[in-house]
Each structure stands twice: as structure tokens, then as C-alpha cells.
Amino acid sequence: MSTVILCNGNYAKTPYSLIAEDIRLFSVEEVCYYLYKNAFFLQEDFFCDALLDWMRNELGLTSFADNLLLLRSKEEALLRSIEYLFLATGYYTETEVEKVKAIMSEGNSLSVEERRKMRADVYCRKQKYKPALSEYEELLL
């Protein structure tokens, strides 16, 4: 990421890597920023065990990780998890949370294939050809 992000919490020695996008996140605030900027393309599996373990072990955010784990079993888990994280960190306001909800709602009206195609197109525009190719190949299966 090329944008400066104000981080008030812990900064990880070992980053959380989003391999497909070649992005490394070092703080919960960077996770929030990533979620905000990519809300349209997010999938339910974003808050996976690896991310929660990283939050717990690298950032010392045990209660955040535990709460996110509980939210995974709820309806609209992704949306609830994002809302929780944004408000618990205080990184985004309720108005910004509502904006993300609207973006995600718009994205949810599309099929999985349509979102995958759009994500692949974005990867191409960002010249991230390997993840773009991977997305396009998945669409062909």
C-alpha cells in the first residue's frame, strides 16, 4: 500500500500476507483500510483462522479475534465482522460503516462469478497478472 495509515495499536513483526494481491498488513488499522477499500470484492472467507491467529498472536488482540470467531457463525458474518472491527478499533465512523454496508449490499446482488470477473479485471488494471489469471481460470471451470 502506498498510503500512510495512522496506527494507534500494535504493529506486527510478522505481517499478515494477502498472497494473491501481494499485500502485507502490519496492523489492525491496515486490515480496516484494506476492508474499506475492497468491500465490493470481499468474500465470506476473509476472516479465516489464519487472520484470527495473526491478530491474536502478532497483535495481541485476543478479544478481537475471539469476537470475530463468534461472528463467523452468524448470518451476514462478513458484514457483521467488518462492522465490529471498524467500530471496535474506532478507525471508521458509523457513517463510513454504513457506506461499506451499502457497497457490500450492491456487491451481494451480483453472482459469485460476476464478482470474480470484476475482481480479475481489477487485478489486470493493477497489473497483478498472476492473481488475475487465477481468477479467470476459476471462472472457466
* Low-pLDDT segments, ≥5 res: none
Assembly type of the chains comes to: single chain
* Structural category: mainly alpha
Distance, first to last CA: 32 Å
Calculate Rg over CA atoms. 15 Å
Q: Report the count of strand segments.
A: 2
With strands numbered from the N-terminus, the spatial order across the biggest sheet is: 1-2
Major pleated sheet: 2 strands, antiparallel
H/I helix tally: 7
Shape: globular
Series of secondary-structure elements, N-terminal to C-terminal: EEHHHHHHH
Q: What is the mean pLDDT?
A: 86
Range of strand content:
under 5%
Q: How much helix, percentage-wise, in residues?
A: 55-70%
Description:
The chain has helices at 28-37, 49-57, 62-71, 77-89, 94-108, 112-125, 129-140, and strands at 16-18, 23-25. By secondary structure, it is mainly α. Helix 2 (49-57) packs antiparallel against helix 3 (62-71), helix 3 packs antiparallel against helix 4 (77-89) and helix 4 (77-89) packs antiparallel against helix 5 (94-108). The model has no long low-confidence stretch (mean pLDDT 86).
Features:
mainly alpha; 7 helices
Indicate the topology:
Layout: E1 16-18, E2 23-25, H1 28-37, H2 49-57, H3 62-71, H4 77-89, H5 94-108, H6 112-125, H7 129-140
Antiparallel strand pairs: 1-2
Helix pairs in contact: 1-4, 2-3, 3-4, 4-5, 6-7
